[in-house]
Amino acid sequence: MKNGKAVVLVVEDSTIIRMGAVDLVLSAGYEALEACDADEAIGILESRDDVDLVFTDVQMPGTMDGIKLSHYIRDRWPPVRLIVASGAAILEESSLPTGSRFFSKPYDSHAITDAMAHLLSIRNETGC
Predict the structure, then answer these.
(1) What is the pLDDT of residues 77-114, one digit of tens each?
(2) CB 81, CB 122: distance < 8 Å
(3) Beta strand 81-86 with 31-35: parallel, antiparallel or unpaired?
(4) For residue 15, what is the enclosing H or E element?
(5) What is the pLDDT of residues 23-58, one digit of tens each?
(6) How many CB atoms lie within 10 A of CB 87?
(7) What is the chain's mean pLDDT, rounded?
(8) Where does 1-128 have alpha helices with state H?
(9) In 3D, which of 87, 74, 117, 67 has the Cα closest to residue 20?
(10) Which residues cross the membrane (predicted)?
């Protein structure tokens, strides 16, 4: 958390969808960071220690998709909470790291912000 605000990293290769997700994060009262692929997201995570939640798309160009990215993040930065979304794939949450949430696109904005609030409150309660 930075200045009392949770920091959410949005990882999405589509500029328009990423802009909408960033607006959603900001309107929920969080600080938003953005990356266009997994490599850029990892670079941000390596350079900052205040990212609380990553909201990633599944299908992206680059070295890994959102599913692999979510597992990489869980292994390397266990306290970071994860939300994964996809317009093409319907996933079982069991294919994601424990505690992650999955949403199909188009997703309901309120469902996403509710999930962010829930995941971030769990993080704050446990002190992780």
Answers:
(1) 999 999 999 887 666 666 888 889 988 888 889 999 99
(2) yes
(3) unpaired
(4) helix 15-27
(5) 999 999 999 999 999 999 999 999 999 999 999 999
(6) 14
(7) 89
(8) 15-27, 38-47, 66-76, 109-126
(9) 87
(10) none
Both structure tokens of 45? 């995570």
Q: Rounded to whole angstroms, how far apart are CA atoms 9 and 43?
A: 11
CA atoms of 49 and 96, how far apart (whole Å):
23
**Residue 79 near residue 73, CB atoms below 8 Å:** no
pLDDT of 32 reads 98
Q: 7-106: what CATH class?
A: alpha beta
Q: For residue 69, which of 103, 112, 119, 35 has the smallest C-alpha distance?
A: 35
Residue type, 70: S
Cis peptide leading into 79, omega within 30 of 0?
no
pLDDT digits (tens, 9 = 90+) for 112-123: 999 999 999 985
